[in-house]
Design goal:
With about 240 residues, this protein is α/β, with parallel strands linked by helices. Helix content is about 35%, strand content about 15%. It has 8 helices and 7 strands; from the N terminus they run H-H-E-E-H-H-E-H-H-E-H-E-E-H-E. The strands form 2 sheets. The chain has a 5-stranded mixed beta sheet. Strand 1 and strand 2 form a beta hairpin. Helix 4 crosses helix 6.
Amino acid sequence: MSSTNSRPRRTGAPAGAWADAVLALLGLVLPVTCPGCGAPDRAVCLTCRDALDAEPLRRRLVAGVRLDAAFAYRDTVRALVLELKLRGRTDLVPVLAPRFGALVDRALADVPGALLVRVPPSRTGARRRGFDPVVLLLRRAHAARRRSCRAPRGALRRDRRPCRGTRGPYSSGTPAAHGQKGRTALERVEATVGTLRAAHVSGRDVVVVDDVVTTGVTMAEAVRAVRAAGGRVVRCVALAEVEE
């Protein structure tokens, strides 16, 4: 048999062309633009998708624990995350979810039986969005489906009580709802230390997840809270992290 007959014959347009045509048709009904470059009628254009695929994975230490991040929080990734969180662009989830979910699954596979604990979002953001972007991303990626990985409800929550042992204009705990933007590094630490409380993690290995890690202060507070409750954080995972 000749080598030319051993390959399947291709007929019609390539699969990528068909997918692009379907996206173009949907764009006529539901107009969108690519947050990365502004291309019309695409949730994320093929050029920006290729650029995202080429992005290297990120790794750093937070409170002595390894943090894995799917992307650097810049350029196209930053635009996609802001569109998802601020404008509810859930059509962007299929683009961001696979990498994030893969990192979570890898962390859980490295430490069988570890609990998956999400850093709680701010109450203001949660009320405004009406959905949790981290949960949405993990569901789309079919990540962490094993029952042993599901942390009990309230395993990590925000503590309404004032922080102890901290001083400064943001140490009362109440201004934390206004977010961290515009604060100095010291003010971020003062506003965050003591704001989280963990439960039901004593004697357990824990993987902590969040969407975006900036200075790492909030993730470090999550690690502190889990340790204070008798748990051991074995890995932190984020969708994106700001370059140091």
